[in-house]
Task: structure prediction
Amino acid sequence: MTVMEKVAATDQPLLKVEGLTKRYGPRIGCADVSFDLYPGEVLGIVGESGSGKSTLLSCLAGHQRADLGRVSYDGRDVLAMSETERRRLGRTDWAYVHQNPRDGLRMGVSAGGNVGERLMAVGARHYGQIRGKAVDWLGRVEIAADRVDDRPSAFSGGMQQRLQIARNLVTSPRLVFMDEPTGGLDVSVQARLLDLLRGLVRDLGLSVIIVTHDLAVVRLLAHRLMVMKSGRVVEQGLTDQVLDDPQHAYTQLLVSSVLQV
Amino acid sequence: MIRIENLSKSFTLHNQGGAVIPVMAGASLTVSAGECVGLTGQSGAGKSTLMRMVYGNYLTAGGRLVVGDTDVATAEPRQIIALRRHTLGYVSQFLRVVPRVPTLDVVAEPLLVLGTPATEARDRAASLLERLNIPERLWALSPTTFSGGEQQRVNIARGFAHSYPALLLDEPTASLDAANREVVLTLIEEAKARGAAILGIFHDEGARARVCDRLVDVISFTPEAAA
Result:
């Protein structure tokens, strides 16, 4: 049985979200968000700045405490977990790619160290193997092997972002949260990353939740799409259906506002 | 294999005064295994709209739209994704791919998604590209830089890589030279022979006459005609 057949055979969602709500005082961060995410599925979340996309993502990953609702991962109640348990999950099963790479990297540690640290956190001990795997992953995100000992502070913003992605994917997580991961990247590198992610989703059954402004990115990467406005989900469905036959006024505005290249 | 009953569709343009444009009503047709049905009707009559509804790309307003055992009109996104992977192929007029991915991998992808071993998937992709006269020196390049006709042939190779039980073809022979047109028509005949149900749009009358078993004029599905 291939990975994809196994994935198709599991009819249980990996992540189940019900009525998730987060308020900042009187203001709504996100309200009443519900969805299921299955293994091997990529969910895109789009919407204008301030629509609650990033708030939702950080509540899902447990970086912020939600006020209401339920999140269950592989049958486990994420919101009721102890901090220790959730951190363990964050090291083993999950990865979180921050919008600002400085939030996801250790700036005082070398590029190789940034990637190797994640491996050591899940038990790798052999220096040669760790270094080999780090160099391999740096190559996959197009960072040259001769930069492995440089610190991220010596990297450009785009390189830092690629390093953050390598650091997150090296431990083969099952669920990846991504907050605007391709925002600061050159289009050539962005294309390479999209291909890399599609390969991981296809071959390993990786599940991804990606928050982005870029409708071209979600069209190529996401199976399903959720559109948010003012903290609420106004529309969700199959990605190409939402983009080609949008039902909500806001989605129609969003789709019709994209510049043609 | 494909059964459409009393299907209707309208577009609501919220940002243009909430105008509701009914585009289809009372559409009904069936396509059996091994059969090719051609959609006819003037430009704008709704041929592509109907194809997109069958593919789940456009939502339906009412009616039934069954492909295999899935009612596309009411299915969850997840069921449509599975349907598209295993059962329903679509050769559109546009090739949409991740830039920088080699042509050979673009064509092999539908097989890789199904878990076909990489070498087998690439062999199948290579044989299709060869039949469609895409020179081997181009296989390692991304098709985004190819000519329109080459991109279309890559799109066709991708659409025929997996032996889908049902296929949607939107102008598969447009902008092809005689030799490649012949290859595409042969691919369609082979697909029919193995039992695929095909729904197609062919402006090329010769192609239509050769591969289509029946024609359905979508003019009868326009809301005015049904009213």
In short: Chain A touches chain B through 32 residues (CB under 8 Å). The CA atoms of residues 26 and 67 of chain A lie 12 Å apart. The longest helix of chain A spans residues 187-204. Strands of chain A lie at 15-24, 27-37, 42-46, 68-73, 76-77, 94-97, 175-179, 207-211, 224-229, 232-238.
